Amino acid sequence: MASTTLPETVEAKKRRNVKYVVTCAVLACTTSIILGYDVAVMSGASLYIKKEMKITDVQLEMLMGIISLCSPLGSFAAGRTCDWIGRRYTVVLTGGIFFAAALLMGFSVNYPMLMVGQCVAGIGGGYALTIAPVYTAEISPASARGLLTSFLGLSINFGAVLGYVSNYVFAHLPLHLGWRIMLGISAAPSILTALLVFGMPESPRWLVMKGRLADAKAVLDKISDTSDEVAERLADIKAAAGIPANLDGDVVPVPGRDRGEEKRVWKELVFSPTPAMRRILLSAIVLNFLHQASGIDSVVLYTPRVFMSAGITDSNRLLGMTCAVGVVKLLSIFVATFLLDRVGRSPLLLSSTGGMIVSLVGLGVGLTVVGHHPGTKITWAVALCVVSNLAFVSFFSIGLGPIAFVYTSEIFPLRVRALGCAISMATNRFTGGVVTMTFLSLSKAITIGGSFFLYAGIAAIAWVFFYTYLPETRGRTLEEIGKLFGMAGDTGPEAEGEAAKVEVEMPTK
């Protein structure tokens, strides 16, 4: 009898664990929905803001890009906050920041106030992009980490669709009211998100870093299938945190935590990294730079302008096409969500980038042809622009879009993970801000078609970098991935030295 009921019990526990981890991952990524909404809703709201406030193209570029330029502030703050107060409470704080931003933008009476609101939203975005992948990667099993961490990209794109729909729904309201509702309505989900996150457990890896082994074990028991798996994962995390294997108890001292830990982390990651650590940091920084430098934010934020340049001028059709871009982007990332742990990071990344290159060239050709024949509607060129735009966001969302977040969250060793993700996301958002704030000026300088040819060249460079430099991480535990970059283990030499000292001072009883 026992032999038949035991497998059923284990299987039931496994199903329960999967539901629990998925719920935690979804809750952690809910703030990213607000980020996606805030970025996308500006694509339509900016048309009405410019009309009411009578701002110039340069001022509009500043308004569109400030959210990305302020994001690095949030990323670096989140890197410190999530190590200080924990991953869970940092998600709560992120919701509060988005709430403040929504109120500022919704009640804006002038351009400076709107800029401040956008900046606060950018800080919230930096928090969301840093904490969501860190938390999700740390609580996910290796077999499903790609799937669960890609929820971040899924959330951003879902928020973007809501932003586009908001443009379409509220566009018919009076000029002074419509764009304010578009921007201010995100206050409601911000508060709801902050409240729901209180039901999440803390990251077991953060708990171990704080020496709270009993709490970490309790969380691992909820996300692991057997007691042996709990013991194995706890032992791996203890080793990564520099805690000797013989040191046990509910709460234990952690080597180095009270002696300038933050300076040690900066030194280990940035100022005096080992060759392996340097490669990890370079991989994450360049990946996130190329993620934005290939032009995705220009396409998302300036979709109405791109379609206007292609010859589509009716406002309803413009907003309808913008919604179509958002829906295609969302559906495409669903494909990535289910392929990341089956196909792997590298095949998706290379296929995605290759498709982006072709799409950007097509967009450049179509816009160049239309630009050389003003006043004449060239049907094939307009169709090429529309198809290429949709193909670009689709290819981006299938690979490069979600993989940048997944890969960044999983390659850094435990002690430097928060700071590493903060630096990477700061690079991502700063690059996005520069791209966004220069698109209109770049289009005037080299034409809008020329801008997309430039992005195609950058995407080609990205393909070469991904092919030659980034190893595959599918199916590896977080503690194993460091070996792919040449690390002997997840602990650095300083941590190993500290651990050795503790073992001498606290011998096995």
TrEMBL record:
<feature type="transmembrane region" description="Helical">
    <location>
        <begin position="347"/>
        <end position="372"/>
    </location>
</feature>
<keyword id="KW-0762">Sugar transport</keyword>
<keyword id="KW-0813">Transport</keyword>
<feature type="transmembrane region" description="Helical">
    <location>
        <begin position="115"/>
        <end position="135"/>
    </location>
</feature>
<feature type="transmembrane region" description="Helical">
    <location>
        <begin position="378"/>
        <end position="407"/>
    </location>
</feature>
<feature type="transmembrane region" description="Helical">
    <location>
        <begin position="280"/>
        <end position="303"/>
    </location>
</feature>
<dbReference type="InterPro" id="IPR036259">
    <property type="entry name" value="MFS_trans_sf"/>
</dbReference>
<dbReference type="InterPro" id="IPR045262">
    <property type="entry name" value="STP/PLT_plant"/>
</dbReference>
<feature type="transmembrane region" description="Helical">
    <location>
        <begin position="20"/>
        <end position="42"/>
    </location>
</feature>
<feature type="transmembrane region" description="Helical">
    <location>
        <begin position="91"/>
        <end position="109"/>
    </location>
</feature>
<dbReference type="Pfam" id="PF00083">
    <property type="entry name" value="Sugar_tr"/>
</dbReference>
<dbReference type="GO" id="GO:0015144">
    <property type="term" value="F:carbohydrate transmembrane transporter activity"/>
</dbReference>
<feature type="transmembrane region" description="Helical">
    <location>
        <begin position="452"/>
        <end position="470"/>
    </location>
</feature>
<dbReference type="InterPro" id="IPR005828">
    <property type="entry name" value="MFS_sugar_transport-like"/>
</dbReference>
<dbReference type="InterPro" id="IPR005829">
    <property type="entry name" value="Sugar_transporter_CS"/>
</dbReference>
<keyword id="KW-1133">Transmembrane helix</keyword>
<dbReference type="GO" id="GO:0015293">
    <property type="term" value="F:symporter activity"/>
</dbReference>
<comment type="similarity">
    <text>Belongs to the major facilitator superfamily. Sugar transporter (TC 2.A.1.1) family.</text>
</comment>
<feature type="transmembrane region" description="Helical">
    <location>
        <begin position="419"/>
        <end position="440"/>
    </location>
</feature>
<keyword id="KW-0472">Membrane</keyword>
<feature type="domain" description="Major facilitator superfamily (MFS) profile">
    <location>
        <begin position="24"/>
        <end position="474"/>
    </location>
</feature>
<dbReference type="InterPro" id="IPR003663">
    <property type="entry name" value="Sugar/inositol_transpt"/>
</dbReference>
<keyword id="KW-0812">Transmembrane</keyword>
<dbReference type="GO" id="GO:0016020">
    <property type="term" value="C:membrane"/>
</dbReference>
<feature type="transmembrane region" description="Helical">
    <location>
        <begin position="318"/>
        <end position="340"/>
    </location>
</feature>
<protein>
    <recommendedName>
        <fullName>Major facilitator superfamily (MFS) profile domain-containing protein</fullName>
    </recommendedName>
</protein>
<dbReference type="InterPro" id="IPR020846">
    <property type="entry name" value="MFS_dom"/>
</dbReference>
<feature type="transmembrane region" description="Helical">
    <location>
        <begin position="177"/>
        <end position="200"/>
    </location>
</feature>
<feature type="transmembrane region" description="Helical">
    <location>
        <begin position="147"/>
        <end position="165"/>
    </location>
</feature>
<feature type="transmembrane region" description="Helical">
    <location>
        <begin position="62"/>
        <end position="79"/>
    </location>
</feature>
<keyword id="KW-0769">Symport</keyword>
